[in-house]
Specification:
By secondary structure, the chain is α+β, with helices and mostly antiparallel strands. 36% of the residues lie in helices and 25% in strands.
Length: 109
């Protein structure tokens, strides 16, 4: 299930075509949104995008890991990790299921 990777340039181009801003303005808009998301996450906030999902920062405690090749135990220090939790709407779209009583073809209209 290897698909195309969507880049910042792809997002900027989509904004350019769909919103009608200039390419420069579209790129700046995408950068601003991504920067704001990053700043919020770095500050420990949860970022929730309705009908898309939530980015959540979690703390992981210290634990002992093991090198799979050598079997040597290694201490893994506590750290912050970011996880993405997709919304039910996004899960349904990915699985081609109806959302809120609409079939998937009605959404595109």
């Amino acid at each position: 299930m290897a698909g195309k990777t969507v880049t910042r340039a792809d997002l900027s181009e989509a904004v350019y075509h769909q919103v009608g801003l200039s390419r420069t303005e579209s790129s700046a808009l995408v950068e601003t949104v991504l920067s704001e998301i990053c700043a919020c996450l770095a500050g420990g906030e949860t970022v929730k995008l309705s009908s898309f999902g939530s980015f959540v920062v979690r703390s992981k405690g210290k634990r002992v890991g093991r090198n799979p090749k050598t079997g040597v135990e290694v201490a893994i220090e506590p750290r912050q990790v970011m996880v993405f939790k997709p919304s039910n709407v996004l899960k349904a779209k990915i699985n081609g299921q109806a959302i809120n009583g609409l079939d998937r073809h009605d959404e595109d209209e």
